[in-house]
Amino acid sequence: MQFSSIVFIFVFLPFIVTAYYLVPQKFKTPVMLVASLVFYAWGEPVYLVLLILSVAFNYFCGNDIEERRGEPWLARRSLFVGVAVNLLILGFFKYYGWLLGTFNTLFSVSIPYRVLSLPIGLSFYTLQALGYLVDVYHGEAKAQKNVFRFALYMMMFPKLGAGPLVQYASFEPQLERQVVNVYTLGRGASKFVCGLAKKVLLADRMGEVFAQVYALQMETFSILTAWVGVVAFAFQIYFDFSGYSDMAQGLGMMFGFELGINFRYPYTAKSVAEFWRRWHVSLGSWFKKYVYIPLGGNRGDTTACVRNIFVVWLLIGVWHGAKWNLVLWGFFFGVVVVLEKYVWGGWLAGFPDFVRHIYTFVVVSIGWVLFFGSDTGYAMDYLEIMFGFGRRALVDQQSLYLIVTHWALFVLCVLCSSMRGWDLFRTMTEGYKNVLVRRLAVSVFYLLLFVVSIAFLATEECVPFLYYAV
Amino acid sequence: MTEDGGKMRMVGKTRKNGIKKKSGLALLADMFSISVTAVGKWLVMALILAYVAFLLWYTGGSTKPFEEVAQAVENNLNTENLVKRDGQALKRYYGLNSADYAGVLFYSSEFSISAEEVLIIEANSETQVQEIRDAVEARLEGRKENFSDYAPKQAMMIEQAAILVRGKYVFVAVSPDAERYAEVFRKSL
Predict the structure, then answer these.
(1) Do A118 and A224 fall within a single domain?
(2) Do the beta carbons of residue A434 and residue A283 sit within 8 Å?
(3) With contacts defined as CB-CB under 8 Å, which chain B residues touch A56?
(4) Which of A69, A76, A141, A391 is geometrically suited to a Cys-Cys bond with A169, CB 3.0 to 4.6 A?
(5) Which domain holds residue A155?
């Protein structure tokens, strides 16, 4: 089920919120669990069993590791089994077909194989499970003895589809008791509406612009058309994923959970390294804690540090999907981050802010081409056009048409992806001295956002979140 | 299970007479002298393996060439009442463009009084699979309504149509032999 679907907003959510607020504290966890199971089964009934088995396996594994803490070798073996099984499940569903397909292509053979579709959320809940097992092994968290609370951590519906990735040690106290009241409901609802508007009003509309460019024959592209396409995708993926994250965060608040921030205005970054500290924060933190630091982080010599950065970035690339251009995408950012760290970082700092913003956006855009390209060849051809290689027109009617018909949307996206948009909103709604008027202005603003978003949802097809495919 | 943080070696409820009744997991754990959690872990692991095997067999798609799959099904079709159709028919009946897909095999009855038809399509993407499913549902729903007035047996046959989605393959059979055709299709993957 999608957060941005009519069924979710007008049937599922009101019913669950009412039930959750009415039942006593001890029944809140079961209500949330049932809601999460229904939510998951709605879209993927066949994978519900896999999710439940995965939760059960990690529950037993966590407790097994804790029981064996007195015998380090046995505890390590238990951790190894837990990590291996989680990775094997992820590997089988996500990478097995890709690797066999690559093998067939490389050796010009056609070994037939059976394929299964990727279960929604598998990439996310696998990382959470791995983090939990490692935390229990290191004694940073106690293994959860209550299977229902553990299941809630693994599969609560606000974060089940595409995160945010929540680390167990920080989340554990919230599993004990959820505080819900009118304030948390209101705060959560406004965050949810904000995310819904980002998704429906900005991401999906930018998606239409991008789809128009993507559907064109590349031979007919001008340089400007290529840039319009990549900028549209940059905004689409940002508002799609940050909209999803806002909705997840808002839903979490409504049910008494703090899920953490996933985006901090990434397009305002002045370097690529900073961009990645602001984009998908929970994923960055996960890889830093469970891969980069255990590898040695930046403690060793330059060679070791560079190696660690590349390992992390290749893993991030592969995690995003089973495609060679995503491996290249990860490698590309590994190279840029290393270059910023050791070659031009200091030099870059001397430039005015606007130059650094442009540099970051251009480099990130190159990354997006590798990300959305159907294959590596397509991405390379697209990049050639963007940077004017080959005989290409600078501007054509197609690009001008797209800009003229969508300029207001582009301006709105620029505003909303920076702090300026937020400042504007505060000026519009919080500038009133009278508290009552201020509250009324804020309420009217969110109500308007909600009504307009629903109007779009009622007339347009519900577009799945891009990160559901990760 | 205990919630006090202690080892979970004893699982069960204490009866009134003081004798503990052990659960299946605890009995297994005692049998192999290992902890309940370890038994649970290995047991669930085995269940995961079995479930993945089940998924592969019953829902897994195949990378076998379309021609091989289509040939296997075609060889087993009872074509007494069926005629092989082209892309135009697919467009007319299902609203689908055969050129968009990796492969299409479409048979339907030559008599308008019969609802019998068999369709196999190999899509190029997951999105196309959904598009085909929607078209199939719309087609079957429409035909069921048409037949229900004057040929209830045909409407019943549509009701019992075999629809299978295996990876990028979509299989539809409206026929008295629908189940047999579906089995042939399944085995051909």
Answers:
(1) no
(2) no
(3) 40, 44
(4) A141
(5) 6-177
**Residue B80: predicted pLDDT:** 81
Residue A138 counted as domain residue: yes
In this structure, what token pair is assigned to residue A271? 């370097």
> pLDDT means per 10 residues in chain A (470 residues)?
87 94 90 93 85 95 90 90 95 88 83 79 93 94 92 92 87 85 90 93 93 85 91 95 94 92 93 94 94 88 91 94 90 94 86 92 95 87 87 85 92 89 77 81 88 88 75
8 Å CB contact of A53 and B189: no
Split into its structural domains, chain B has a count of 2
Range of the domain at B159: 66-188
Active site residue A320: yes
Residue A418: per-residue pLDDT: 87
Indicate whether B1 pLDDT > 50: no
- DSSP strand pairing (B103-109 vs B20-22): unpaired
CB contact under 8 A, A116 and B55: yes
Contact A287, A277 (CB under 8 A): no
Contact A60 B40 (CB under 8 A): yes
Residue A60 contacts B where some CB pair is shorter than 8 Å: yes
Q: Does residue B28 sit in the same domain as residue B89? A: no
Length of chain A measured in residues:
470
| CA–CA separation, A270 and A345 (whole Å) | 11
The rounded distance, in Å, linking the Cα atoms of B146 and B112 is 11
Domain shared by B19 and B106, yes or no: no
Q: What would the mean pLDDT of B52-79 be, rounded to a whole number?
A: 84
Same domain, A127 and A212: no
pLDDT at B18: 53
Q: Which residue of A has its CA nearest to B129?
A: A117
| HSE-up of residue A470 (Cα within 13 Å, Cβ side) | 24
Same domain, B132 and B173: yes
**Looking at the domain assignment, is residue A449 inside a domain?**
yes
Residue B106 sits in the same domain as residue B158: yes
Q: Mapping DSSP to helix (H, G, I), strand (E, B) and coil, where does residue B63 land?
A: coil
A354 and A222 in a single domain? The answer is yes
The C-alpha of B69 sits at a distance from chain A's nearest C-alpha, in angstroms, of: 12
Number of domains in chain A: 2
Considering the domain boundaries, does residue B3 fall inside one?
Answer: no
With CA atoms as reference, report the closest residue to A229 among A378, A353, A452: A378
